[in-house]
Write a structure and sequence with these properties.
Elements: H1 2-9, H2 11-28, H3 33-40, H4 46-55, H5 62-73, H6 77-101, H7 106-112, H8 135-150, H9 155-173, H10 179-203, H11 209-226
Helix pairs in contact: 2-10, 4-9, 5-6, 6-8, 6-10, 8-9, 8-10, 9-10
Length: about 230
């Protein structure tokens, strides 16, 4: 199976991602929700406020849409389709989960527990509900994982993974999400990316009828030559 072979070749990417997420899970369950948030989010400076306020926008889906458009313009239709599907799947999964769990975001959670947290970044619109999981993180990891899967250059793996984790951390820094939201957002993005890649490159579910007929003809011809 093409997908399994590609996953095996990219084991360093997935091993690193899953190792970091596993450590994050251990950290998350080692502290209370408030204590974990504060330990993970205690360092703030003005320049980081500005940096994360803008960098977090790269996880809102526009990057995925832009990447799909660029790939389509370069006639990389399968790659563009994989990016688009991963974005759609991760978005749907996140929205369904948000409405099932309906978890409070940090600002509302702290208000309900009477905890005084004062470092909300100016200019950031604070939401109250639907914290779990993080949609920005899911979108970032979906895009990063798809790019690693569809391109064979190992050099981009580090940058893609760094980009995804940076987006994930930005959601905590800006007090939009807790660590657990980011962890499951990352998992959702990775799973949706693998599913999309499998559908496009293995199952070929979105190939045109004309190409399907041509593929069947070639398959029949190859079988005939083997006889």
């Amino acid at each position: 199976m093409h997908t399994l072979k590609r996953l095996n070749k990219l084991n360093y990417y997935f091993f690193t991602a899953l190792s970091v997420l596993l450590l994050a899970i251990i950290f998350n369950f080692s502290f209370s929700k408030t204590d974990g948030f504060l330990l993970f989010n205690h360092f703030h400076t003005q320049w980081l406020d500005i940096f994360f306020k803008y960098i977090t926008n790269l996880g809102d889906g526009l990057m995925s849409i832009l990447a799909a458009i660029i790939l389509l313009a370069l006639s990389k239709k399968k790659k563009a389709l994989t990016v688009a599907l991963a974005y759609i799947y991760s978005g749907l999964l996140v929205q369904v989960a948000k409405r099932i769990f309906h978890m409070p975001r940090p600002k509302y959670f702290f208000e309900q527990t009477s905890f005084q947290y004062n470092h909300f970044v100016e200019g950031v619109n604070m939401h109250g509900q639907n914290s779990f999981p993080s949609g920005h993180t899911a979108s970032a990891f979906a895009l990063a994982t798809v790019l690693v899967l569809v391109f064979k250059k190992k050099e981009i793996s580090f940058y893609c993974l760094f980009f995804a984790f940076l987006i994930g951390y930005s959601r905590i820094y800006l007090a939009q999400h807790f660590l657990i939201d980011v962890i499951f957002g990352a998992m959702a993005g990775i799973i949706c990316a693998i599913l999309s890649y499998h559908q496009v490159y293995d199952l070929k579910l979105f190939r045109s009828a004309k190409l399907n007929r041509r593929y069947k003809q070639l398959k029949i011809a190859n079988q005939a030559n083997l006889i």
